[in-house]
Amino acid sequence: MRAALLHGPGDLRVERIAEPEGEVLVTVQAATACATDVKCLRHGHPILGPYPARFGHETAGLREDTGERVLVGDSVACGSCLQCGAGRTQLCERMRWVLGGFAERIAAPAAALHAIPDDLPAAGAAMAEPLAAAVHAVARAGDAAVAGTDVAVLGGGTMGLMLVRLLELQGCEVTLANRHEERRAQARSFGARAVGQLDAARHELVMEAVGRPEAWRAAIAAARPGATVVLVGGCPSGSDVTLATGPLHYAELDVRGAFHHTPAEVDRALALLAAGAVDWHALAGETIALDELAEALARPTAGEARKLVVDPRR
Ligand SMILES: [Zn+2]
Ligand SMILES: [Zn+2]
Asked: How many angstroms does the Cα of residue 80 sit away from the middle of ligand 2?
């Protein structure tokens, strides 16, 4: 079968490989791409296996044993470590990552599979993976994300847009900040106010979805005293301790990280997508074949935020 393999940073090849072996074989119908995949291609990633490595972690398809349509969750927690015992399975110390959606087939443990609601197409179902992370991030905001709250979302990628939609569903007053007008227009179509830059010390809740220290700094600057800041974007190059010495102390900000999601959040995401409460069409970009993946991931990100959909059957 054909699969996209990373042989090293910048080196993606679509090759014929042996059929995968594992608990359940899934024929991939759609695998969507995100900034993590771009990171995997350009720089490598700690969750990738040894090179040549399979990748693609937003995957929907058909179970070969039962014919059931499933979302392949990208991870299975061990269930027995300290974090799992405390109910924080998203922080499992022995997480098994299930990667390889950019291929004709993927083998996955049954525990990673989620049934797809009937009317939700594969490309929409694959987006339940990142949407579950957005559901988790909003849950991390807790009481700070109640109806009427003045919330800022920093970053207008597909994660930022998903956060906007979920916060709107909770009745928050959402402002999205992004430098590019196409992204601002997209945020408005998701129901948010949109600006190029956030006002200082204004928002009761700030959710950052960029993943760079400058964005963390901007998120903290936009928070009013007593506010909550949730950092959703993963940063490839470590932390910035100077952030803690200023506003974090004097403005008593409650800064929370949000990483990954739980299996229950994946099912919540599937239900939101199936009900149309989050419109996955508005987040879907072009559908491409496996052979077009390297070129498409290497393209500079400009224009609207949309997820590439890989259909390995093409
Ligand atoms: Zn992703
Ligand atoms: Zn665990």
From this structure: 5
Give the C-alpha separation, 81 to 83, whole Å.
6
Q: Which of 312, 274, 268, 262 is nearest to 33 (CA)?
A: 312
pTM of the model: 0.93
Is 202 or 243 the better-scoring residue by pLDDT? 202
Mean pLDDT of 107-128: 97
Question: Quick one: which ligand is closest to 79's CA?
Answer: 2
Q: Two tokens at 43?
A: 């720089």
- Give the distance from CA 236 to its chain's centroid: 15
Say how many Å lie between the CA of residue 173 and the centre of ligand 1.
Answer: 26
Give the Å distance between the CA of 220 and the centre of ligand 2: 32
Long-range residue pairs from 271-276, CB within 8 A, at least 24 positions apart, any chain: 271/117, 272/131, 272/135, 272/166, 273/117, 273/120, 273/124, 273/125, 273/127, 273/128, 273/131, 274/116, 274/117, 274/118, 274/119, 274/120, 274/124
Residue 136, pLDDT score: 96
3-state helix, strand, coil in the chain (%, to 5): 35, 25, 40
User: Could you give the CA distance from residue 80 to residue 253 in angstroms, rounded to a whole number?
Assistant: 33
Q: What is the dihedral of CA 290, 291, 292, 297, to 10 degrees?
A: 70
Q: Of the ligands numbered here, which is closest to the C-alpha atom of 36?
A: 1
Q: Is the peptide bond before 20 cis (omega within 30 degrees of 0)?
A: no
Q: Which two tokens stand for residue 49?
A: 């296996």
The domains found in the chain, sorted by start residue, are 2-131+260-310 (3.90.180.10), 134-257 (3.40.50.720)
**pLDDT at 64 exceeding the cut of 70:** yes
